[in-house]
Amino acid sequence: MYTNQSELRFPQGFLWGGATAANQCEGAWDIDGKGMTIQDCLEFRAGNISNMTKQFAFTSEDLNKAQSVNTINYPKRRGIDFYHHYKEDIALFAEMGFKVYRMSICWSRIFTDPEDETPNEKGIEFYVNVLKECKKYNIEPLVTLSHYDVPVALIKKYRGWYGRECVGLFVKYAKVCFEHFGPYVKYWLTFNEVDAMLRHPVTSGGLIEDQFEDVPFEQAMYQAMHHQMIASALAVKAGHELYPDAQIGCMMTKLCFYPYTCKPEDNLATQQRMRSIYRYVDIQVFGEYPIYLKKEISNKGYTVKFEENDEQILKEGIVDFVSFSYYMTSCWAADTNGLELSPGNTFNGVKNPYLPSSEWGWQTDASGLRYSLVELYDRFRKPLFIVENGLGARDTVSEDGHIHDPYRKAYLKEHVCAMSDAINLDGVDLMGYTWWGCIDLLSESTREMSKRYGFIYVDLDDYGSGTGKRIKKDSFDYYKQVIASNGTMLE
Questions:
Q1: What would the pLDDT profile of 29-82 be if each residue is shown by its tens digit?
Q2: Looking at residue 45, what is its pLDDT?
Q3: How many alpha carbons lie under 13 Å from residue 155 in its C-beta half-sphere?
Q4: Which of 14, 126, 132, 418 has CB atoms 3.0–4.6 Å from 370's, for a disulfide?
Q5: What average pLDDT does the segment 412-434 reach?
Q6: Per 3-state DSSP, what percentage of the chain is helix, strand, and coil (rounded to 5)?
Q7: Which of 220, 123, 122, 107 is nearest to 169 (CA)?
Q8: Which sites are catalytic (predicted)?
């Protein structure tokens, strides 16, 4: 990496900012006409999750149980109450100097029930106000249409995205978003971490395994992914027709695996694991199913039902740029028996003995970000956007009332250097960078407040107790300096 800060360079107009998701920050789950989403039904499960499969287990009984109004057990219902604090929070983002703010729109806030004929005016009003607040400070919104919050109505009626009916309903929702929010939004994403269906189908697609006695569950996941691919392509096309200058991208989980050893078997196993991450982004970028994905599905004895015009729809709805989340790396091996596994961003990998681990087991690796940027740009040849990157830590308020978080500043510095290397040494076209959880919010994997990412501390604990007061951490001023200098002042 660069050691001379004078060599750190970012393009003029580079989009520095932060990112949140509606389901992790908004709260206000049952007011102003909002319908219930899968996130409103996920219970509090804190701590270091060593088995991610168990973490995302969910049954029809769980769904029925969640119809109660116990908000303590369902923390996503309260979030950090961004719904009522958005003006204060966006003002703080502006004080840091944000050029862009990545946010998501909750489908169930726009349509209380996805099959409603008309959208919920209160929901539209809320998001228009948020977007206007961003524009007041010259912050570009980067809007995700679907971020892990499938409406419960679709789960109950169509078994989530397994039902083809979801395609038309999503496109209706997307068009409403483009029509009402298009004047304020240049940058859009269709589905968050679109590759995640086969890792956690409940949050990605609203698929509950016990509802699929008539079809192999894995086949149902492939079918649901196909429906999301069609919906994404149709949304991209609709958005471009309404706003030709809009930039509409895809978003993937950039999992990164190194071979555990130099054994050929470990290298091959790692290559196959990485392929499984790219398969659906390949569709969104190139407009067709890759041959290896077709082989994967047929070799398992599964089929995916295509309707007559599906292949043409995919070709007409390719994305303008590729965005991704990046937090860590892991290793992989052909045989993981006897090897220590390390939990991560919705997956388990083999622990890398050369990397440090957070309290939650995530292994930080700034070099892996440069590696990932080069890998993605070589593969897709489209502009890239890092829309999630950050460090979850257990922050504490000191006796002087401040939050000192040198670990977050160090993490940010290392990753900014990695981005600069990718741009200046490797020729990567990088549009921007949004730190995940720029304000403390509920963790997706554990649904706890204790795992904090933000530059802004929110005085709430895991059970919703606290004042909700927003407090700047030391990293707030540090990121402000990074942005003001366009990434060149890191000390």
A1: 999 999 999 999 998 876 545 554 555 689 999 999 998 877 778 999 999 999
A2: 75
A3: 28
A4: 418
A5: 97
A6: 45, 15, 40
A7: 107
A8: 388
Contact 145, 191 (CB under 8 A): yes
Angstrom distance (rounded) from CA 425 to CA 101: 27
Of residues 265, 259, 209, the one with CA closest to residue 61:
209
Q: C-alpha distances in angstroms, 450 versus 47, 344, 442?
A: 9, 17, 8
H or E element: which one contains 348?
strand 348-350
Q: What is the mean pLDDT of residues 116-142?
A: 98
Record the tokens describing residue 316, joined without a space: 């007409």
**Is position 388 annotated as part of the catalytic site?**
yes
> Which among 490, 487, 476, 391 is positioned nearest to 94, based on CA atoms?
476
Tell me what pLDDT residue 5 has.
56
* CA 352 – CA 432 distance, rounded (Å): 29
Separation between Cα atoms, residue 311 and residue 419, nearest integer Å: 36
Determine the Cα–Cα distance for residues 108 and 149; give it in Å rounded to an integer. 8
d(CA 455, CA 189): 24
Mean pLDDT on 84-110: 98
Mean pLDDT of 210-218: 97
- Tell me the CA end-to-end span of the chain in Å, nearest whole number: 15
Do 365 and 273 form a contact (C-beta atoms < 8 A)? no
Q: Which pair of structure tokens corresponds to residue 323?
A: 């965005």
Rounded Cα–Cα distance for residues 487 and 484 (Å): 8
Place of tokens 């990112």: 19
Instruction: State how far the Cα of 392 lies from the Cα of 388, in Å rounded to an integer.
Output: 12
Rounded to 5 degrees, what are φ and ψ at 328?
-165, 175
Sheet containing strand 341-343, strands side by side: 257-259, 330-332, 348-350, 341-343
Q: Predicted confidence band at 262 (pLDDT cuts at 50, 70, 90)?
A: very high
Q: What is the pTM of this model?
A: 0.96
Q: What is the pLDDT of residue 341?
A: 86
- 26, 193, 388, 448: the catalytic one is 388
Confidence of residue 166 (pLDDT cuts 50, 70, 90): very high
pLDDT at 335: 94
Distance CA 280, CA 225 (A): 8
- C-alpha to C-alpha distances, 295 to 16, 218, 290, 303, 381, nearest whole angstrom: 40, 15, 9, 11, 25
Distance of CA 350 to the CA centre of its chain: 23
Q: Are 293 and 208 in contact (CB under 8 A)?
A: no
